[in-house]
Each structure stands twice: as C-alpha cells, then as structure tokens.
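Incident log, entry 3
Record: DUF1059 domain-containing protein (66 residues)
Problem: checksum mismatch between cached and fresh output.
Input:
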Amino acid sequence: MTKAYSYACRDCEGMEACPASVTAETRDEIWQLMGHHARIAHGENPEDWDQETRDYLGTLIRETDV
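Fresh output:
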C-alpha cells in the first residue's frame, strides 16, 4: 500500500455540513488543495489564517493508505 494524506472539511469545527474532502500524495499538496477549497467554497483567504488556525487545521490532515 502507498501512503497518502487526506483532509475532510466536515472535520473542521463549524464546517460539519461541507461535503468536500481531498486526498493527495503529500501534506504540501493537501495544504494547497485546502487553500483552494477555502477560497472557492467558503470565501476565505488562507493567507489570513493565523498560526493557531494553521496548527488546528494541521491536526485534521490524516495519513491514509491508498
């Protein structure tokens, strides 16, 4: 099996109704996809995320087998 990483927006507090999830080969790819999703679906600018928010979101990225 190959290792990958995943993020499900619904795991984020306050986003329980969001169906978006992503899986990618690296954590860096996940961060990029999370940023695109935040902009498009939620009107957020990831550049505005403070370190506390980034740390919290980082805990929601899971290692997975594909």
